[in-house]
Known about the structure:
Blueprint lengths: L10 E3 L7 H31 L6 H27 L6 E3 H33 L1
Antiparallel strand pairs: 1-2
Helix pairs in contact: 1-2, 2-3
Amino acid sequence: METANYTKVTEFILTGLSQTREVQLVLFVIFLSFYLFILPGNILIICTIRLDPHLTSAMYFLLANLAFLDIWYSSITAPKMLIDFFVERKIISFGGCIAQLFFLHFVGASEIFLLTVMAFDRYAAIC
């Protein structure tokens, strides 16, 4: 008779990029600054396209959607990573890990689809 393993994974331990406190603080500042440059930059792109009446072609509509997806894409994992720089026990639940993985793949696939549509739009404009 075979024995089966019935253990259930409920959480994952994240080892992170570093275990030393000084390096974690430096990495926190670096990743936070990247995140704080990405968000306003994409919001500025969206607002500029929406508010300027001259930017009404299909490419600008697609560009605004690409900026919107980029906000979502960068907001999937960055907040959890930034929080983990300050907590002692770096864990993520199984459901949280699956949710991050799902949304990362979903938004990534949406960006790929949108980039394909943008490339086809340029191809149609040239030809």
